[in-house]
Structure formats: C-alpha cells, structure tokens
Amino acid sequence: MSRWSAVLEAALPERSGSVSRILGLSVEVRGLTAAVGDVVTIAGEVAAGEVDAEVVAAEEGTLRCMPLSATNGMRIGARATVASGRLRVPVGPPVLGRIIDGLGRPLDGRGPLQARRVTLDHDAPPVMERARIAAPLASGVRAIDTLSPMGRGQRMGLFAGSGVGKSSLLSMIARGSAADVNVIALVGERGREVREFIEDDLREAGLARSVVVVSTSDQPAMARLRAAFTATRIAEAFRDDGVDVMLMMDSLTRVAMAQREIGLAAGEPPATRGYPPSTFPVLAKLLERAGNDRQGSITGVYTVLVDGDDHNEPVADTVRSILDGHIVLDRSLAITGHHPAIDVLASVSRLAGKVTSAEQQQLAATLRTVLAARRDAHDLIGIGAYQAGADARVDAAITHQRALDQFLTQSLDEQASAEDSWQRLRSLVAAFGDIS
To answer: Most buried in the list 95, 121, 275, 339, measured by CB within 10 Å?
Structure first.
C-alpha cells in the first residue's frame, strides 16, 4: 500500500510559489504552503544554482524564509518549491573523524557520508527520566578536575573575552576527556582558525574520536544557527545508543547573535541590547537537550564570548543561570603566560559536591582559601607592607607560590589524569601545614 501511495504522491502536481520580496537577510515567498522549519528551494541564476531557505515565519499567503547559503542571483519572481521535508543530518559511527558543515555536508574531502539521516527535531530527555549526575568525568585539566570538577552529563560554560584561550582549553579537554566521543561545534569561527584548530590543537588523536561541525563567520545566520543544532543532534544520536558524549560548542554567544539576526529579519522587536525575545528561549532549548538520559549522557562544554569582558552582559547572564557551572578565563592571567588562564576563585561547579568525596572537597576548599588570602593581600605584598606571620594562609601562599603556579598551569600537550591531579593537590595541601 505504501508503494502505491508513493506513486500517487509522485504523480501529484508540484506545488510552487515565487519570491515576492528580498529584504536584508530574509526572503518572502508567496503562493506556497509550508510549515515553520520546512526547507524551501528557490531557483537562482544558472551560474549561481538553487538556494535552500528555511521557513522562519508565516503570514496569510506569505512565507518568510532565511537562506541557508549565499543569495547571489536570486531575484523577484524566482520560482520556489518545498524541498523534501525538514533538514536532515547524518548521525552514527560513520561520522566519527569527519568534518562537516552545519547542514551535514562533508568538508574534509573524504567523500560522501554513508550514514543514516535524521531531522534536527528532538525533545530534551523527560525530567523524571534523566539519570542523576553522580559520576565524575575527567577533563584532563588539573585546575578543572580538582577545583571545578565536572560530572558525567553536566553542562559547563567557559566564559572569557576574545583571545584568552577558550579554543585551546577546548582542545585540551577534547584530547584528555574520559568521554567516549567528542562532538565539537565551531560556530561563527574565522575561516583561518578552523584548520589551525583541527591540525594544531585537536590533532589526529583528538579528531579520531570526534565529529567536528563547522560554520564560519561569513555564512548566513541560519547556517550558523543550524550548526549548533546539528552538533547537538549528532550528540543525541550517540547518547541514544548508550554512549557517553562530550559536546563542545564554540561559541554560544555567536549562536545567540545568529538568532538575533534571524529574529530581527523575521520582524521581531529588539529588546535587551538588541536581542529579540526569541533569542533566550532558543538558548534554553539548545542547552536543555544536553545531559543524562536513561542509558547515555551528553556532557556539554559551551564557550561564552563575553562582550568587552563584561560577565554580566545579557547572553552571559542568561546562560550562566541555565548551566550547571561556569569556568572563567581571566585576561590578566593570560597576558602573564598563565595557561590555561582559569580564574579558579571565580569558577564554580554546581555539582562538585555530587561527584567528589568529602576529602576531595576539603582539599579543594583549602586551596581556594589559600588562593583567596593571597589575592586579598596582593597589594600589601606588592609594596612590601605585609609582615610574615600575620596570616598563616598568606604565608603558605608566599612560601609555596611556585608550587601553586605549577599546579594551576598546564601545557597544551600535557594530559593529567584525575588520580594524579588529586594526588598532587593532596601533597600540595599537606605542605601548607596548619593554616587554621
């Protein structure tokens, strides 16, 4: 029966409409019926070929669409047809080690992907069916694994301004994490940096168990937004198979910027700092799709490019309230050669108490106390006004300053096991003596 249904459907006349308006980033099509999220194919000039666009808003008799590629050659009156349903992307083991764009097309020159394809639509795990986060997930970075430890299924943010080392830290986590699979989304990246990240930072060992989804800054807003959801959908497919996935996205701020462009082009009013109302629900929907399911997990690490190093700007503030913790990278540390430039006192893991023992929590608290005392006495130490013996914590920080810096810094090539990191912290705290 399904065979005859397919034959009858193929025999039906093709529905088509035409472009009635091209304004800024959006294209309006009349005479065509489609749902929000469907893909419309618009004919262009012969040299430019067809252009796919996604329906983002619908009014009576008019579809407002956002192109998924360049609109060169598009004109008023161009023929528009509904493509084959919604956008589908490849998932499963065949995508491991591959580099694809936000629409699921290979970019690595290794031929087509022979993988099953699914739509981007997928519900977040039901709240009462999510497995609780109780097991730690090592990142391979000492400062994270001991002072802001992540749990399997946790969502963590990396907050920093531009050029502070977010991408380098992501590459360290990709190579050193205990997850089975890495899914890495590079959204709005400079084209020059993509190959550098893959070859210099991620390298062959990291790429072998990773999927890299790329959408550069010159691509349309819809393509950039779709890259984030494509990476999330690929991670969800692995999780559905019982795999523990590390999903890394650089950057969530550029996802928000893409949604801002789309929302404004669709006619939404600008609100906080020009972001339309739809921006923040889209971020929440994207982030809630990570986490634990009944059998697999997605541990999310999302970078947030804070505007002008302002950690309270709208995107950073909203994302911080949704995530399960945040790691702050500090520019003043980066310029002194302290890498990774993690401000451990400003960084918090909300699930640290769930994935560490009481002894480990005490060790981390002791180190934080010493670091906080050193920070508070920094000015006095700098001008030589601090008197030894005034504060045992400051004395410990001064005496063991080199050991502290060696513990908190780590080269890009160094991978630290969680066991070794905790043992080093245990030895360091023991050297402090009695600082109560």
So the answer is: 95
For residues 40 and 49, what is the distance between their CA atoms, to the nearest angstrom? Answer: 14
Q: What is the pLDDT of residue 273?
A: 79
Q: How far apart are the first and last CA of the chain?
A: 80
Model confidence pLDDT, tens digit, residues 189-199: 887 888 888 88
> Token pair 């009944």 is at which residue?
294
User: 62 with 23: CB under 8 angstroms?
Assistant: no
What number of other Cβ atoms are within 10 A of residue 130's Cβ? 15
State the alpha helices, DSSP H only, in 209-303. 221-240, 252-265, 279-288
Q: Tens of pLDDT along 150-180?
A: 999 999 999 988 888 888 898 889 888 889 9
Decide: 354 and 134 in contact? Cβ < 8 Å.
yes
Average the pLDDT over 60-83 and give the result.
Answer: 86
Count Cα neighbours of 355 within 13 Å in the Cβ-side half-sphere: 24
Q: What is the pLDDT of residues 89-124, one digit of tens each?
A: 999 999 999 999 998 999 998 888 889 999 998 889
The Cα 330–Cα 340 span in angstroms is 9
Structure tokens at 379: 């000015």
Distances (CA, A) of 436 to 12, 206, 364, 392, 411: 82, 44, 15, 7, 33
